[in-house]
Each structure stands twice: as structure tokens, then as C-alpha cells.
Amino acid sequence: MSVQAFEDLIRGPLTTFVQLSKKIGGDVSAQADLVQSAFQAEFQFIKYASEHSTPSNDEKQKLLQPTSSKIQEIQTLRERSRGSPYFNHLSAISESIPALGWVAVAPAPAPYVKESNDTGQFYTNRVLKDWKEKDKTHVEWAKTWVQLLTDLQAYVKQYHTTGLVWSKTGSGLAGGPPPPPPVGLPPMDDLCLAPTDPSETSRSALFAEINRGADITKGLKKVSPDMQTHKNPNMRISGPAPAVIGSSSSSTTPKLVAEKPPVFARDGKKWLIENQKNNTNLVVDGAEMNNVVYIFKCINSTITVKNKINSIVMDSCKKSSIVFDSLVSSAEFINCQSVQMQVINKVPTITVDKSDGCQIYLSKDSLSAEIVTSKSSEVNVMVPKADGDYSEYPIPEQFKTTIGPKGLNTIIVEATG
User: What are the tens digits of pLDDT across the range 330-347?
Assistant: First the structure.
């Protein structure tokens, strides 16, 4: 029953999703092929579990590698396509595809699927907003993906309520590969031969750790009163540096991460500004109305964009500023800290996602702009006054929800003090 129900997911909503992706084409179609492969790999894992008893953690890691590999490829495709006109589509899938990791979650895998689906809906909502008046195929695409993960959540809740069910009467795992796919499904050779890299091994190890459930805390040491910083103020100053999660306690050599070279380049309609540090004289000049500026991992830098362009994305930047003339679409801030934005003329939409400390300076022509925030804090909007100064307004972060006769009622909680 469990195997058949998952196969129904593949033949039903997943097939519809892939067909819609093919209509859109480009990176969306390529990513859909990877999504289909990821579901097929998980199908093999579920079928294997239905025929074998619970394996050791090491053996389970090997079985999880094909699925883990495809998840990694899906996320890598999104990272290398940040200038794509379908970046929101790619992000929606990249942010929610970890839902397939439910097979390593216990004792409540269904809520894990829902959480992943909710994360991706930030981007599917943007697809719905951007394309509802342009092309209904994109609208259908977004709704189909959300429904697919909703169906996956229902499947997990029904057949694997407390975790992936392994056969109680099946044979023990002999370390061999999963059985071949059922008739009618694409072959899995390309999945089994996928290259292994350290990130995939780490992901599989994480799945294995999660699957230990309550046993994961057995190796922890008890913290005595003399080891607690709130009872020993001196430890806050002279105490040891906090441990890095995942590092070995016996290792004394820090792990070095090679810095990537700075990038300032134009690639067709895309302007790429990446890994810039302490550079306050970055100017995008000569851009056209259909161009996109993508700013990634810049620190303590200032970017000035001349002329009217399509959109600007600032991703994973710190202590940086962007000044621009006008935008056709939107200015977006993702995973940023302490950044500033100033528009000289007009911007229709500003979105802030998973960012802390974002200062937005508007012009008189941009007072009708829509500002959408999600999982962000310390977002302030500066509105120009007649004397040339600015009035500062903080975006609300705190809300109060009560239950009424017609459902939930949510209001803003004003900051006090």
C-alpha cells in the first residue's frame, strides 16, 4: 500500500508538474528533470524499506545517497542561475525539495514536509504575483508544486506516521543496491552512478543522526553549575570560544575556507557583482531597461546603478548599500545584514526575506511602493519630508493573534518603551 501510494504521487501530481515545467522551458525544465529523478530515487528507497528490515546507520547512508545527490543538484542549479528570469521558480523548488528528507526524520516526519513546503511558498507566491496577468501556465505550475508537497505530507502522515516503516518480516540488508524500478518508470542507472562529494556524505550523516530520535541526546555531558555562564560572569569574557557544530573535539586545526575572487561583470542582460569587499565605488553604467543586477556576498561595499533597469537582487550581503535610479520590477534583499537601499526616482516593489537591519530610503515618486517582508527584523522605511529630511518608520515585527467566531484575528503589536 505504501509503495503503491508513493508511485501514485509520481504518476499523478509529479507528472503534471514536470509537464508544466516543460511548457515553461529553460532552467525550470532542467530543474524539473532533477526533481523527477529525486522522487524516483526516493521511490526506490521506500520500496527497498518495504522489503527489508531496518539496516545499520552506515548502510542507510548508502541507500540515501541517490536522493541526497539529486537534492544537492537541484540546489546547485539554483545557485548558479541567480540571474535567471525564472529565479523565483528555481528558488521555490530549491527551498522546499528538502521535504524528501522526511525518510530520515522521526518521530514526526509529516510536519517536516509541511515546514519545507511553507518555506518554498515565499517564492511560489512571488511566481503567482508576477505571472497571474502574464501566463497562466506559471500560475498552474506554482499551484501544482504546492499541491504535490501537500499530497506528500498526507502520504507520510497516513503510511509513515512516526517515521519510515521498514519491513518486519523482510530479509536483512546485504549492502546491495536497491532493486530495479517497476515497469513503466524511467531507469535509475543515472542515479546510482551519481558522483559522491563531501556535502552529500554530510547530508546522509545528518539524516542518520536525525533518525536516531531520542537516542541522539545520550552522548551529551551534564552541565554543572560551575560550567554555566549565567552563574559565572567571568566565563563570558575569558571562557573558551564556542564549539563549532559538527567539528571534532580532538581536532585543533581550524578549517580554512578559500575566499572567492571578486566579480564585476556583465553577462548578456545580467550584471554580476560578487564577493566585493570594502569597495565603495562600484558603478553600473550603461545598463538597459531589461537588465538585471545581481549582488552576492558583498561586504562593506556601495553599488550605484545608473539608468532605469528591470530589477536588483542583493543576496547574502553585509554592511553594504545600493543606490539606483528606477526599476521596472523590484528590489530584493535576501539573507542580508545591515544593508541600505536608496531609490532616486521610482521602484514599484521591495521585498525583504530573511534579513536583519535593512534601511529603505524612498523618494517622493516611490511612496506608492509595495514593501513585502518575511522572516526579517529591524527593517526601517525612510519617507522624505518637505524640508528634505526623512521620517523613519519601522516595519512591524510582532503580532498578536486571537481566535474569534470566524477564525483567527491578527493585529500588530506596537513597540513600547
Answer: 999 999 999 999 999 999
Give yes or no for a contact between 320 and 302, defined as CB atoms under 8 angstroms apart. Answer: yes
d(CA 94, CA 116): 10
206 lies in the same domain as 298: no
Give the CA-trace dihedral at 225, 226, 228, 231, to 10 degrees.
80
Burial class (CB in 10 A: 0-12, 13-18, 19+), 256: exposed
pLDDT tens digits, residue range 211-257?
Answer: 444 444 454 444 455 555 444 555 444 444 443 333 333 333 333 34
Residues 36 and 66: beta-carbon distance below 8 Å = no
CATH number for the domain harbouring residue 31:
1.25.40.330
| 361, β-bridge pairs | 342, 382
Has residue 251 been placed in a domain? Answer: no
Q: Are residues 110 and 18 in the same domain?
A: yes
Angle at which helices 87-96 and 26-51 pack, to 10 degrees?
A: 10
**3-state SS, residue 336:** coil
166 three-class SS: coil
- 240 within a domain of the structure (yes/no): no
267 lies in the same domain as 210 = no
Print the domain residue range for 38: 2-214
> How wide is the angle at C-alpha 254 spanned by C-alphas 253 and 255, nearest 5°?
115
- pTM for the model: 0.48
Q: What's the domain count of the chain?
A: 2
The share of the chain scoring above pLDDT 70, in percent, equals 78
For residue 85, tell me if it sits in a domain: yes
CATH number where 274 lies: 2.160.20.70
Contact indicator for 137, 20 with CB cutoff of 8 Å: yes
CA dihedral 83, 89, 90, 91 (to 10 degrees): 90
**Cβ–Cβ < 8 Å for 306, 323:** no
Domain check: are 283 and 178 in the same one? Answer: no
User: CA 104 → CA 101, 156, 212, distances in Å?
Assistant: 6, 12, 9
